[in-house]
Amino acid sequence: METSAETTAVLLIAHGSRREAANLDLRDLAARLEAAGPRPIVEPSFLELAEPDIPAGAAACVARGAGRVLMIPYFLSDGVHLYRDLVAARDDLSARHPGVEFALGPPLGPHPLLDRLVAARVEEVDRGGGIAADPAGRGGTRGDSGAVDDF
Hints:
- With about 150 residues, this protein is an alpha/beta fold.
- It has helices at about 20-35, 55-65, 80-95, 110-125, and strands at about 10-15, 40-45, 70-75, 100-105.
């Protein structure tokens, strides 16, 4: 087991939505990543419109013993939110939590795995797997598990 100073946490950061079903995707991802390891702490957070916000998510990482926090944007490209808002959040967190390292990662794309995912979605929709009405409020049907092995 890592000691507190060595413990590295993952802070996932999404934009956030007024629609809680959309936010649940990130919460579920955080739970899956934490269960799978290898990082012992994985927390979800949101830039706006949902809780926990970035400072609260980071505080949860620190409270759980993180000495280092990997800030992983759940954003497709390196737009203004990444370079303005998330850089400012990283700097603010470093000031709020002296002695804890905060490292901000790049957006999800461009990346070959994202290219493969988009190509898989194109084929899925071409086979009739588009979004259908969803009375449960989870955002439609997807037709796959979302796992990388699906494509």
